[in-house]
Input
Amino acid sequence: MNCTHCGAPISLEEKFCPNCGQPNEAAAQHSRDMENYKREFEKTRSGVLANLKAYKGITARLMIFLVVLVLMIIAFIAMNGVYEIHRNKMIKNAKAHSAEVSATLEEYMENKDYVMLAEYAEYNFLSSYKLKDDPKLGKYYPVIRVARCYEYFYMDVMKFITDEDPSASTYIRTSIGTDASEVYKYINDPEGRYLYDGSDKELVDSALADIEELTDTVLITYLGFDRGEVAEFKTLTDAKRAVVIEEKIDQILSQSK
Output
């Protein structure tokens, strides 16, 4: 390039012309441009670093969330695996000791202790479908099903009468009616509820008769039914049974005030 004043050759780095001594305007403009460029560069760099820092924060939180999620899934799968192993072990043990298991179930049935029968069956996984067709234990499968329904009904009634403030337990009120209905559905229609499929009909009928008597007794003893009301209660729909249970509970609560 040449000096704008004298035309002598001059470089961009020279602030003054070596020939005429005048300021090099191109050099001065170049210096200003470079300063502007540096400022813009630093501004852009700071913005990029700030965005990158924020992105790293979001990424870090996302990675933590994903790691926790994966660990939870692994733990869930592991727990299910452990539960499945335990269940299979208990079922295998029940089959291996079928004579002892049968004797225990028969003893509970003889004593009409169907709550303990249900607890024993649940602990030993006797209600599993894997035992439904077992040649030695399968005949107890329908009895266990009804016994568990009766257990739920009985335990809910016990919770109600022992609760310090039974009026506050809406859930128990609903459960008592639902559980009682489930018991009577089995009693009223054992064939329709598939209780006789591949099982000992005499055994099932005997257990149903016992459980019906026990359920009637609970209604009379703890919920204020009489024999006639119990007989009518068995014929009602689920919705009407729920209403009757609510009315009986309200009567008990009003009398206790």
Helices lie at 25-96, 98-110, 114-123, 141-162, 170-188, 201-223, 227-233, 238-256. Residues 23 and 40 are 27 Å apart (CA to CA). The chain has a mean pLDDT of 81. Residues 98-256 form one domain.
